[in-house]
Amino acid sequence: MSNLIVGIIGAGAMGSGIAQVAAQAGWNVILIDQSQEALEKSADQLAKVCHRLIEKDRLTAQTSKAMQERILRSTNLSLLAPCSMVIEAIIENIDVKQTVFSSVENVVSTECILATNTSSLSVTGLASKLEHPERLLGLHFFNPAPLMQLVEVIPAMQTDLDLVKRCTAWMTAWGKVPVLAKDTPGFIVNRLARPFYGEALRIVEEELATPAQVDAAMKGVGFRMGPFELMDLIGNDVNYAVTVSVFEAFYYDPRYRPSLIQKKYVEAGWLGRKTGRGYYRYEAGLAPSPITEATEDLHWIHQRIVAMLINEAADALSLRIASAQDLELAMTRGVNYPKGLLAWANEWGIPAVLDQLQTLHHRYGEDRYRPAPMLRDLAENKLQFDLGAS
Ligand code: NAI
Questions:
Q1: Is pTM beyond 0.70 here?
Q2: Of all protein residues, whose CA lies closest to atom 44 belonging to ligand 1?
Q3: Residue 241 near ligand 1, beta carbon < 6 Å
Q4: What is the CATH classification number for the domain harbouring 107?
Q5: Last residue of a domain, one of 180, 196, 215
Q6: Are residues 140 and 38 in the same domain?
Q7: What distance in Å separates the CA atoms of residue 300 and residue 221, rounded to the nearest whole number?
Q8: DSSP class of residue 334?
Q9: Full residue range of the structural domain in which residue 175 is found
Q10: Which of 34, 207, 236, 317 is the most buried (most CB within 10 A)?
Q11: Whether 87 and 197 share a structural domain
Q12: What is the 3-class SS of 12-49, one letter each residue?
């Protein structure tokens, strides 16, 4: 058992999940929230999860008790004093996060590492207001944190790179798969995944196919959920907000332009499962049953969307956002893609991917479809993406 203590601020969906991960790995956890109610709800939910795991024989009653006892919950931030690391998972607002980090800095020792679970804010911007900006980095977990293996490790411009090594080792010890990402909009997953939604929405906007047909086509090539089912699950409001933030952060690059259809769904209050209606209807708690088998004539759909996803990955690789191996791990472990996008490109054939993009570019004349230079280079030289030894 570890005698290290991690502080986690925010006992919502993410903070509670991260607390469970750390406690399962033997760390002592101090979970802080400004709301006593949120803390109680978090404790109740963990008790329920443990109960289910015990019933399924995946956890013993003794381990469950010890794990739950390792989590101390409080509204009092000053309890964080003995922590080796504090992870922040509160509301996605830079001012609130900066204020909380300043309060934390007043309490913890100078050796304490600070981490943010932000999905969309600049880690560099967050660090800038700290007394010791070199001690902050991003540790971006995925929802639900106990089940999703990926953690994006994101050093800010100011970060002491020794922290990256330590946190990467800690995340591995917590049973996670850490990948190193540059502090750029959307980091890896939220950047590379944009066309999964954006291109699907574009196809439906043009009435070339229905949401059910697009979902069927994508599930037909191994995605666990189609884009529309997934947007309904995430919530159209949440998904739209991420797209808008990535679009703005990239200075309105048309490749990331949000969809007017999705905006209309948000305006209508058709947010997805949580409102009973999104691209599908979820009446009386019944999940919809979209077509699950892709038929031959739906192949163009997945080819168009996957080509756009590959283009995004190729662009991220050209810009050194992450290594090829980490880009692949991010999509397979963070959002359960059936295979890495670069491996997919190699399998499909780089010239075929390039041809797909050039056809779209020619047809629409939009910058959105411009092929990544790396795809052209590889095609010209009859090469493939180098995915290393893994
Ligand atoms: P949430 O809304 O479920 O929980 C946030 C919690 O923070 C609430 O319990 C709230 O009472 C507490 N809180 C807010 N301000 C506080 C303050 N000043 N001091 C102490 N506690 C405070 O939010 P969620 O979904 O857990 O997200 C948290 C963070 O994680 C955000 O930065 C979000 O962008 C990020 N994130 C969310 C993911 C998701 O799928 N929900 C995935 C990855 C990252």
A1: yes
A2: 119
A3: no
A4: 3.40.50.720
A5: 180
A6: yes
A7: 12
A8: I
A9: 5-180
A10: 236
A11: no
A12: CHHHHHHHHHHHHCCCEEEEECCCHHHHHHHHHHHHHH
117 lines ligand 1 (CB under 6 A): yes
Crossing angle for the helix pair 373-380 and 350-364, nearest 10 degrees?
A: 130
Measured in Å, residue 359 CA sits from the centre of ligand 1 at 42
How far out from the chain centre does Cα 153 lie?
A: 12
When divided into structural domains, the chain yields a total of 2
* 9 SS3 class: strand
In the residue annotation, 40 being an active-site residue is answered as no
Contact in structure between 221 and 298 (CB atoms under 8 Å): no
Close Cβ partners of 162 (under 8 Å, ≥ 6 residues apart): none
Cis previous bond, 144, omega within 30: yes
Residues 193 and 176 in one domain: no
Are both 176 and 193 inside the same structural domain?
no
User: What DSSP string runs through 148-215?
Assistant: --EEEEEE-TT--HHHHHHHHHHHHHTT-EEEE--SSTTTTHHHHTHHHHHHHHHHHHTTSS-HHHHH
Q: Does residue 190 have an active-site annotation? A: yes
Give 98-151 pLDDT, tens digit per residue: 999 999 999 999 999 999 999 999 999 999 999 999 999 999 999 999 999 999
